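Much of what follows relies on a compact textual record of a protein's fold. The record below shows the convention in full:
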Amino acid sequence: MEAEPPPLQTWLRIALDSPRAWGGPPTSGSIRVEAADFQVDERLGFEPDGGEAHALVLVEKKDANTLFVARELAARAARPVAEVGFAGLKDRRAIVRQWFSVPAAKAAAALAGFTGDGFRVLAVHPHSRKLRRGALAGNRFRIRIRGLQGDAGDVEARLARIAFSGAPNYFGSQRFGADGANLAHVWRWLSLGRLPRGREPRAFVLSAARSLAFNAVLGARVAAGTWNRILPGEVVNLSGSQSVFAAESADEALQRRCRDGDIAPTGPLCGADGVAPSGEAGRVEMAALGPVEPLPARLAALGMRAERRALVLRPRDFTHRFLADELELAFELPRGAFATSVLRELLDDRVSEPDAD
């Protein structure tokens, strides 16, 4: 008999109030006061190949929803919206330069210079394939924090620590909806045994469920101080790739590679099959998943394939500068990582942040 789902408040705490790695934040401030305070440039990691089947479309959007832009591009190109591709949802309250794909028939001519409510097409390139979810290398962020409070030396020290040692790779609050609303839909799925109709609503529920389980494991590892070191039986990720391997022991050579950022411990994206940790790492993971039971089993029953995600998030090309009572940050993150997971190690929780997609 499956365990009853835990109180929703427990889920909200796991999802939205996870422990920090480096202690209380040394500063507070406001982000997204203006859309231009949060800028994102999507990096595909490949160039348009000149094929004729599709068009890759670079769009700049401001205060605009990714799905809304996809619908507008589909209407302009007279194609079903399901044929429009994009690598992932992006922040709404921001200026974002993001790639879409549209079947090429007459897309290039129809979309060149196209503008709409909160977006404009910057470039159109011929390409052979539809852009799939997750098909990107990462994102480059430029973030302005206004009304900065706190000691500048403490802020500098925390920035240096994040740049050197990274931050916990939590799924950000955006994944769980405004005030964790998506978790209520996950609760409803478990209670009623029915997923929402429609591809996007279903995807939101399953994504929130997997993210909740991952954050539960990562939060437990952060609380125990083991999120950034290798445990015996760990499933280890090779940084910059999707490759993983099992580490039966946790010798000093592996720990050194972990400190250097060459490898990282991983947590579960729950599903069926896949590689799972053993030994101490496996016991820690199973205990951490207890508060979100029966989500792992339900996700596996749906046939979703289990995957692994690094517990450590290391910003690349991390730079900053102070401007009076403001701080500007710039850094690049790999695909699937959240800038807010970096910011929460620096900024007080009271920072106001409008909802994302």
